[in-house]
Design goal:
disordered C terminus, 4 helices, four-stranded mixed β-sheet, alpha+beta
Length: 167
């Protein structure tokens, strides 16, 4: 039995049920608690608490379709998935979006790609890449030279990563 609480994230949302369905399906999390003002999703390793915004705050927020990207926050959470390609299709069907394959990059032993949930909250998906499929440093350098790689976060200082246009 664990001796300490699971790590987790608390996210305030306008449409509690839609955002809960999005993360439940995208990350295959189990609903462990449902109340009028919050839903708790979890796995063996972590917990996601989605809390409905109070009405006086929710009234001032307009969620567009597609949602406006909310990048004005210092937090981006990192989410493991078995397949970014599968998550991209699923996210789209659930009202969110994962950026196109051209915006994926390799970091350490992972393929990574950002996306947004149905309310525009930014997240990063991470897919473990077996060593035999990873690009060698010389291959990455060659690809960067010919412009096939948009960035290599592993070799960039914070803030030096290439800027890309958001969809």
């Amino acid at each position: 039995m664990p001796t300490s609480p699971k790590p987790g994230v608390l996210l305030y949302v306008k449409n509690l049920e839609q955002v809960a369905r999005f993360y439940e399906r995208l990350l295959t999390l189990a609903v462990s608690r449902t109340e009028e003002d919050h839903i708790v999703l979890e796995s063996e390793a972590c917990q996601l608490i989605l809390h409905r915004l109070p009405p006086y705050i929710a009234e001032s927020i307009v969620i567009q379709s597609p949602p406006e990207v909310r990048e004005g926050t210092p937090v981006k959470w990192l989410l493991p998935v078995p397949s970014i390609a599968d998550a991209r299709l699923l996210a789209s069907s659930l009202g969110g979006q994962v950026w196109p394959i051209e915006r994926e990059w390799e970091f350490m032993d992972m393929r990574v790609c950002d996306g947004i949930d149905p309310e525009g909250n930014v997240f990063q998906l991470r897919q473990k890449v077996p060593e035999y499929l990873r690009a060698s440093p010389s291959t990455r350098a060659s690809l960067q030279t010919i412009g096939d790689v948009s960035g290599d976060a592993e070799h960039c200082a914070p803030g030096d990563a290439p800027q890309v246009e958001r969809p």
